[in-house]
Amino acid sequence: MENCRGFVLAMRGMVRRGWLPPRREWLIAARWGEGGEFLSLSFTGLPAERRAPPPLGLAPDATLFAVRDGPSGQAAAYLIHSKVPPDVPLAGRFIATRGWIMLARMCGCVRMVACSDHSDTGVAMRMRAVCCPWPAGQFVEPPD
After folding, report:
1. Which CATH architecture has domain 7-134?
2. Which of these, 50, 65, 59, lies nearest to 119 by C-alpha position?
3. Out of 8-12, 38-42, 132-136, which region has the weakest mean confidence (pLDDT)?
4. Residue 66 contacts by C-beta under 8 Å, 6 or more apart in sequence?
5. Residue 12: which of 47, 36, 59, 37 has the closest Cα?
């Protein structure tokens, strides 16, 4: 993760909300800011079939907001915040929740695991995802 600060990625995710069965869903991960300190993780509501490519028209529906927790390296840790600063742009409907997101590049692929608890309902979400080639996104800022 140290080679690129900003990106927009389509990720094939497995999302578990509370006690409901896990669901495959397309997620959008976006990292931006000075040194890549901000991360949004958006749910699209679209099912992600095992081998299907991400649709070009993916759009955020509901979004988590996180800030980097510590230095960059092979893995990057982010803390999910229950509030978004007023000067930070965010696509999709914001979800007030707390938790963490870990991003790591393994074998040339970006992988994500996350865990959060919804601030109002206390419903837990557990997510894991892998990046998929997506012409609408990818690494958009040059490396340092």
Report:
1. Beta Barrel (2.40)
2. 65
3. 132-136
4. 38, 39, 40, 41, 78, 79, 80, 81, 100, 101
5. 47
Neighbouring C-beta atoms of residue 35, cutoff 10 Å? 12
What's the pLDDT tens digit per position in 105-115? 887 788 999 99
Q: Which helix (H) or strand (E) holds 86?
A: none
pLDDT per position as a tens digit, 26-56 = 999 999 988 889 999 999 999 999 888 998 8
In this structure, how many other beta carbons lie within 10 angstroms of the beta carbon of residue 126?
15
% the chain with pLDDT above 90: 56
